[in-house]
Amino acid sequence: MKKITLGTALASLLALTACGETDTREKHIFTVEVEVTDTNGKIQKVKQDCRQLQNRCSAKFDLETPYGVKTFEVNAANEPINPEKVMAQLYKSKTSDDEDKVTDTDYKQRTFMTAVQFGSNRFKAPKFEEVNWTPRTERKIGTELKIPNPDLMKKIALLEEKKGEERKKMFSADFKKIASWDKEIKSLDMPDVKAADLKIRIY
Fold it and tell me: Which candidate, 139, 118, 120, places its Cα nearest to that of 128?
């Protein structure tokens, strides 16, 4: 049998650290990490550590767009596979710190994006598949982030302005015109434009 020396042990530890294989986080913590590359090639990386049973873990980033700087969120939410087991652990917990550390062996994980500044009917967030996720495993997602077409939003703003001016006329307002502009706004459609590439890691 090969004798393990102190030098060998230290070398092994350094090798593990160099490869990024050591993880000092507590077992009940997981991470959502997002690498954002905008259309000019600028890269930023954000990440957030959260408890596995937290309703939502959000990694937020700001992005320069034709509408100014907007904030986006990549969210991950975990649903325990064994809720009865989790509830039993929570019942036995004596402190809030104990409750925070309750975990399950596997989860159903839902990943989604939000951008509050764009109306929910205009920002079409990318869709991600719900998957089974085991703590300390890595999930990778690559996708494009798209935003509403600026030309489309300009047309909508112009029609909304016309509607506002017509309504100011009060009793002489032409409601047929207003109704036609409403109909036109609903019918307008243009392809979204790319704002960034995203590399998402959940681990």
Answer: 139
In which band, very low, low, confident or very high, does the pLDDT at 11 lie, cut at 50, 70 and 90? very low
Q: Closest by alpha carbon to 139, among 18, 17, 30?
A: 30
Helix, strand, coil percentages in the chain from 3-state DSSP, rounded to 5 = 30, 35, 35
141: helix, strand or coil: strand
pLDDT tens digits for range 115-141: 978 765 688 999 999 999 999 999 999
Q: What is the pLDDT of residue 12?
A: 41
Q: Which two tokens stand for residue 103?
A: 């975990």
Q: Are 75 and 111 in contact (CB under 8 A)?
A: yes
Mean pLDDT across 61-68: 94
66 closest CA partner among 200, 202, 192: 192
Strands 68-80 and 139-147: unpaired
Asked whether the CA dihedral 53, 54, 58, 59 is positive or negative, the reply is negative
Give SS3 for 115.
coil
If we measure between CA atoms, which residue out of 185, 151, 186 comes closest to residue 67? 151
CA 167, CA 19: separation in Å to the nearest integer? 65
pLDDT in tens, 17-42: 344 457 899 999 999 999 999 999 99
Q: Give the Cβ contact number of residue 164 at 10 Å.
A: 10
